[in-house]
Design goal:
The N and C termini lie far apart (about 90 Å). The chain has a domain at about 30-95: Lysozyme. It has three helices and two strands; from the N terminus they run H-E-E-H-H. Strands 1-2 form a two-stranded antiparallel ribbon. It is mainly alpha-helical and about 110 residues long. The radius of gyration is 26 Å and the shape is globular.
Protein backbone atom coordinates (compact mmCIF):
# COMPACT_ATOMS: atom_id res chain seq x y z
CA UNK A 1 0.00 0.00 0.00
CA UNK A 2 1.36 3.42 -0.84
CA UNK A 3 1.67 6.11 1.83
CA UNK A 4 -0.96 8.90 1.85
CA UNK A 5 0.47 12.35 1.50
CA UNK A 6 -1.43 15.00 3.49
CA UNK A 7 -0.44 18.53 2.60
CA UNK A 8 -1.97 21.94 2.85
CA UNK A 9 -1.89 23.57 -0.51
CA UNK A 10 -2.80 27.08 0.60
CA UNK A 11 -2.49 28.65 4.03
CA UNK A 12 -4.14 31.97 4.87
CA UNK A 13 -3.20 34.09 7.83
CA UNK A 14 -5.94 36.27 9.27
CA UNK A 15 -5.09 39.53 10.84
CA UNK A 16 -7.43 41.19 13.30
CA UNK A 17 -7.39 44.89 13.89
CA UNK A 18 -9.03 46.22 17.00
CA UNK A 19 -10.46 49.68 16.80
CA UNK A 20 -11.14 51.40 20.06
CA UNK A 21 -13.64 54.19 20.18
CA UNK A 22 -14.53 56.31 23.10
CA UNK A 23 -18.11 57.30 23.65
CA UNK A 24 -18.87 60.36 25.69
CA UNK A 25 -22.26 60.49 27.30
CA UNK A 26 -23.74 63.76 28.37
CA UNK A 27 -25.88 63.79 31.47
CA UNK A 28 -28.63 66.36 31.22
CA UNK A 29 -30.06 65.73 34.68
CA UNK A 30 -27.79 65.89 37.72
CA UNK A 31 -27.38 62.74 39.83
CA UNK A 32 -28.96 64.56 42.80
CA UNK A 33 -32.02 65.50 40.71
CA UNK A 34 -32.25 61.92 39.36
CA UNK A 35 -32.29 60.68 42.97
CA UNK A 36 -35.25 62.96 43.70
CA UNK A 37 -37.13 61.70 40.67
CA UNK A 38 -36.27 58.09 41.55
CA UNK A 39 -38.27 58.62 44.75
CA UNK A 40 -41.26 59.72 42.68
CA UNK A 41 -40.81 56.66 40.43
CA UNK A 42 -40.70 54.43 43.50
CA UNK A 43 -43.94 55.99 44.70
CA UNK A 44 -45.66 55.82 41.29
CA UNK A 45 -44.55 52.45 39.90
CA UNK A 46 -42.35 50.89 42.56
CA UNK A 47 -39.38 52.20 40.57
CA UNK A 48 -40.30 50.37 37.36
CA UNK A 49 -39.09 52.73 34.61
CA UNK A 50 -40.45 50.28 32.00
CA UNK A 51 -44.03 50.34 33.35
CA UNK A 52 -46.56 49.80 30.54
CA UNK A 53 -49.90 51.07 31.73
CA UNK A 54 -53.10 51.53 29.78
CA UNK A 55 -53.15 55.27 30.50
CA UNK A 56 -50.00 56.12 32.49
CA UNK A 57 -46.55 54.95 31.41
CA UNK A 58 -42.94 54.82 32.47
CA UNK A 59 -41.47 55.04 35.93
CA UNK A 60 -43.14 58.34 36.69
CA UNK A 61 -46.61 57.32 35.54
CA UNK A 62 -46.73 59.96 32.80
CA UNK A 63 -50.08 60.36 31.08
CA UNK A 64 -49.72 59.44 27.39
CA UNK A 65 -51.14 62.80 26.30
CA UNK A 66 -48.52 64.57 28.45
CA UNK A 67 -45.75 62.38 27.01
CA UNK A 68 -46.77 63.39 23.50
CA UNK A 69 -47.29 67.09 24.22
CA UNK A 70 -44.33 67.83 26.51
CA UNK A 71 -41.51 66.54 24.30
CA UNK A 72 -41.57 62.80 24.94
CA UNK A 73 -41.82 61.87 21.27
CA UNK A 74 -38.35 63.37 20.85
CA UNK A 75 -37.05 60.32 22.72
CA UNK A 76 -39.50 57.45 22.15
CA UNK A 77 -43.09 56.75 21.12
CA UNK A 78 -43.95 55.73 24.70
CA UNK A 79 -42.49 56.70 28.08
CA UNK A 80 -41.68 53.10 28.98
CA UNK A 81 -39.41 52.88 25.92
CA UNK A 82 -37.37 55.92 26.99
CA UNK A 83 -34.50 56.00 29.46
CA UNK A 84 -35.15 57.12 33.02
CA UNK A 85 -33.29 60.36 32.31
CA UNK A 86 -35.44 61.04 29.24
CA UNK A 87 -38.57 60.43 31.30
CA UNK A 88 -37.31 62.89 33.89
CA UNK A 89 -36.63 65.51 31.21
CA UNK A 90 -40.24 65.24 30.03
CA UNK A 91 -41.52 65.35 33.62
CA UNK A 92 -39.47 68.51 34.17
CA UNK A 93 -41.15 70.04 31.11
CA UNK A 94 -44.52 69.11 32.58
CA UNK A 95 -43.54 70.63 35.90
CA UNK A 96 -42.24 73.83 34.21
CA UNK A 97 -39.01 73.72 36.19
CA UNK A 98 -40.47 73.62 39.70
CA UNK A 99 -37.86 72.80 42.30
CA UNK A 100 -39.35 69.63 43.75
CA UNK A 101 -40.52 66.80 41.51
CA UNK A 102 -43.63 65.97 43.55
CA UNK A 103 -44.51 69.43 44.75
CA UNK A 104 -47.76 68.35 46.41
CA UNK A 105 -45.99 65.79 48.58
CA UNK A 106 -48.36 63.09 47.40
CA UNK A 107 -48.10 60.01 45.26
CA UNK A 108 -50.33 60.82 42.29
CA UNK A 109 -49.71 60.38 38.59
CA UNK A 110 -48.85 63.29 36.40
Amino acid sequence: MSPVNHSVADTHTASVTTISTSVTTTTLVSPAKMDEWAKVAHCETDGNWKHEGSLYEGGLGILRWNWQHFGGLTYAPHAWLASSEQQVLVAMNIQHGLETPDQNGTCSSW
